[in-house]
UniProtKB/TrEMBL annotation:
GO terms for molecular function: transmembrane transporter activity. Residues 1-39 are annotated as: Disordered. CDD domains: MFS_MCT_SLC16. The lineage of its organism: Eukaryota, Fungi, Dikarya, Ascomycota, Pezizomycotina. The keyword rRNA-binding does not apply. The chain crosses the membrane at residues 48-78, 90-113, 120-140, 146-166, 178-197, 209-229, 253-274, 318-338, 344-366, 378-400, 406-428. The keyword Transmembrane helix applies. Keywords: Membrane, Transmembrane, Transmembrane helix. This is Major facilitator superfamily domain-containing protein. It is a multi-pass membrane protein. Residues 15-35 have a biased composition (Polar residues). It comes from the Eukaryota. It is found in: Membrane. Belongs to the major facilitator superfamily. Monocarboxylate porter (TC 2.A.1.13) family.
Length: 478
């Protein structure tokens, strides 16, 4: 749902897509060496934006999709002892580092976009990511794997991801959620392909050549995308500032961060643990890779559906309900039915809700801070996700016990994290409803009510709490 300009709030105003914005000091200026900011005089919904969607889809398939294949590598490492000096805990750090370094790199990549442009920032990531897989193919000790598949891959992933995550929103208004979800579905389809292909390559070609083939594929595809992708940073007045600290003064932004924090913990545990869980309850490695493939397939197919639903029924509504479904599926499907292969496949199909954060994070962020501040907001947002991304799988392995029921504490913990994320975004939804109701008042009533730009007096707290509670149970598209 696109909130009318009168309902966006003072910090969420965005120039109309057809308007031309004058260059300002705070607006990123593309370097002359970069020609990816080809501005169109008249904005048209979609248009070249569909090429951008396809481009970002391919990047996601060959970055986040590749990262999902670490579940296959992790299961192989844990059962072969091929890496010297490694423990299950250090392997968990390899997977966590790949995500946390990507998020930690976000502010630096944001600055690079402002200085070098989108295409060159993407190309830096392409080179680093390919180099990381080549380095991993020669790794024999755990510190080598931590530097290659963990740190180097994570930095490359961060440059690729940060340079592309906000572009799709610039090309769409009415179909923004669907376009974003379609582009993020690439990580699901990429994960599906690489979950099956990685297991097959390891079995038939060996670990070393599996890494090298992946390096070649990611370099060719992502490098080709860097030649055709375009942004509209100048047209929308995008502000590429690594840290826009005034955002930290807004309670609604902290609710947005809280939703991501708890969701990230649940997502990382689920995506990295399913293959090992399948083998821990007695299934063959090939079946474990199929479970991971189904999990990624559900995200590839489901994310565009989430986007369509978000545009129709409200972005905050779908993000909240999807997060709730992820938590409930942990308790009622993974725990009770996950010991059977059919039950585990059913839970894997619910993976679309486990990763609901990815298709919803940019559209929800635009609702909270506006399109202009979205790059800066996401820069802080991803930085806040570093801790959960780093330690989520480590926590899972600590909670894991030997035996068939060894994952029960992991399952409960994952479900609780998703429920905490749901509580955060539902409170954010209440704030948005209350903001819309407040902005519908005329200026005189706003001043009298003290609801806008003022602190709530102690005597007003019960009434304010009641209004938030009413907003939480209000059925409305938002």
């Amino acid at each position: 749902m696109t909130v009318p300009s009168a309902q966006r709030g003072p910090h969420a105003s965005t120039p109309a897509p057809s308007e031309k914005t004058s260059g300002k000091a705070s607006v990123s200026n593309e370097s002359p060496i970069d020609t990816d900011s080809s501005e169109v005089e008249e904005f048209k919904e979609g248009g070249y934006g569909w090429v951008v969607v396809a481009s970002v889809l391919l990047v996601n398939a060959h970055t986040w999709g590749l990262n999902s294949s670490f579940a296959i590598f992790l299961a192989y490492y844990l059962r072969t002892g091929i890496i010297q000096g490694a423990t299950p805990m250090t392997f968990a750090f390899v997977g966590g580092l790949s995500i946390s370094m990507a998020l930690l790199t976000s502010p630096l990549a944001t600055v690079c976009i402002a200085k070098l442009g989108t295409r060159w920032t993407l190309r830096i990531g392409v080179v680093l990511q390919a180099a990381s897989f080549v380095g991993a193919s020669f790794s024999l000790q755990i510190w080598q794997l931590l530097l290659s598949q963990g740190v180097c891959f994570g930095i490359g992933l961060g440059f690729c991801f940060t340079s592309t995550v906000g572009i799709v929103s610039q090309w769409f208004t009415k179909r923004r959620s669907f376009a974003n979800a379609l582009s993020t579905s690439g990580s699901g389809f990429g994960g599906l392909i690489y979950a099956l292909a990685t297991n097959a390559m390891i079995q038939n070609l060996g670990l070393e050549w599996a890494f090298r083939i992946i390096a070649i594929l990611s370099f060719v595809v992502n490098g080709a995308v860097s030649l055709i992708i375009r942004d509209r940073n100048k047209a929308v007045g995008a502000i590429h500032v690594a840290f826009h600290f005034p955002l930290l003064k807004k309670p609604e932004f902290w609710l947005y961060m809280s939703w991501g924090f708890f969701s990230m913990i649940g997502y990382v545990i689920t995506v990295f643990s399913l293959t090992d869980y399948a083998q821990s309850v007695g299934f063959a490695p090939s079946r474990g890779s199929i479970v991971a493939a189904v999990f990624n397939l559900s995200q590839g197919v489901g994310r565009p559906l989430i986007g369509l639903s978000s545009d129709k029924y409200g972005r905050l509504n779908i993000a909240g309900l999807g997060t709730l479904a992820a938590g409930l599926s942990c308790f009622f499907i993974w725990i009770f039915a996950g010991k059977t292969y059919a039950g585990l496949i059913v839970y894997a199909l619910f993976g679309v809700f486990s990763g609901v954060i990815w298709p919803c994070v940019a559209p929800v962020g635009a609702e909270v801070v506006g399109l202009q501040l979205l790059p800066s907001a996401l820069s802080i947002y991803w930085l806040g996700m570093v801790l959960p991304a780093t330690f989520a799988e480590v926590i899972a392995l600590v909670l894991k016990n030997p035996g068939v029921n060894g994952y029960i504490h992991v399952q409960i913990f994952t479900g609780v994290m998703y429920l905490a994320a749901f509580a955060s975004i539902w409170l954010l939804r209440s704030w948005k409803l209350r903001q819309i109701d407040t902005l519908s008042l005329d200026d005189e009533k706003e001043e009298e009510s003290g609801l806008r730009g003022q602190h709530i007096a102690p005597a007003q707290i019960p009434a304010a709490a009641l209004s938030y509670f009413r907003a939480m149970i209000t059925v409305k598209r938002i």
